[in-house]
Amino acid sequence: MSKYIKELIASDVRERIGDVQELLVIDPSKVDAITTNQLRLDLRKKEIKMVLVKNSLARMALNQAGVSALDSILAGPSALVWGGEDIVALSKEMANWAKQIDGLEIKGGTVEGTTLSAADVEVLSKSPGRLELISQIAGLALSPGGQLVGALLGPGGKVSGQVKAHSEREEE
């Protein structure tokens, strides 16, 4: 393959990836074509993209995008996977597919410039996603206010009830 063709392919991969800095690398080489097609279709519905590309071209495209954390993982058959809501949702989806499809292997990934091993991706897939974390933070932020209101209403309600009863007795 000529240098010009390699540069064209690398620039095409670079355009597809865009500004994405969080990717996973999988090995779909042991998966039959029909299952791979089904995987691609289901991933597309969830706005997850997958591209199978030669490792040297992937390295070239990723280095142009400023992603060098995958260099050590890009060995042997590799496909780049990115997209979805966030990296946690992506890792959950790919971990589910790896369990369903025999031969599909997660090789690793990158998050914020850090290289992830396959075990790290598995741990990441079990952590809460973006929306779950936002709801947990909101719950924690509202918790002290709820406790304060409860503290004020509990004894405060008793005191106001006694003051009201005492004022009614005085009126009679």
What can you see in these coordinates?
There is one protein chain. The chain has helices at residues 3-17, 33-45, 55-64, 87-100, 118-125, 130-171; strands at 23-27, 48-52, 79-83, 105-111, 114-117. A hairpin with a 2-residue loop joins strand 4 and strand 5 (114-117). The model has no long low-confidence stretch (mean pLDDT 83). It has a 5-stranded antiparallel β-sheet. The relative contact order is 0.14. The protein is built from 6 helices and 5 strands. By secondary structure, the chain is of the alpha+beta class. Helix 1 (3-17) packs across helix 3 and helix 4 crosses helix 5.
Question: Can you describe this structure in just a few lines?
Answer:
With 172 residues, this protein is an alpha+beta fold. It has helices spanning 3-17, 33-45, 55-64, 87-100, 118-125, 130-171, and strands spanning 23-27, 48-52, 79-83, 105-111, 114-117.
List its traits.
172 residues, 5-stranded antiparallel beta sheet, 5 strands, elongated
Please write out the topology.
Elements: H1 3-17, E1 23-27, H2 33-45, E2 48-52, H3 55-64, E3 79-83, H4 87-100, E4 105-111, E5 114-117, H5 118-125, H6 130-171
Helix pairs in contact: 1-3, 4-5
What structural class should be given to the helix and strand makeup? Answer: alpha+beta
Main sheet properties: 5 strands, antiparallel
Secondary-structure element order, as H and E? Answer: HEHEHEHEEHH
Strand order of the largest sheet: 2-3-1-4-5
The count of strands amounts to 5
| pLDDT < 50 stretches | none
- Report how far apart the termini are: 103 Å
3D shape: elongated
Determine the strand fraction and express it as a percent band.
Answer: 15-25%
* Rg computed from alpha carbons, rounded to a whole number of angstroms: 27 Å
Average of per-residue pLDDT values: 83
User: Percent range for helical residues?
Assistant: 55-70%
Enumerate how many helices there are, as a single number: 6
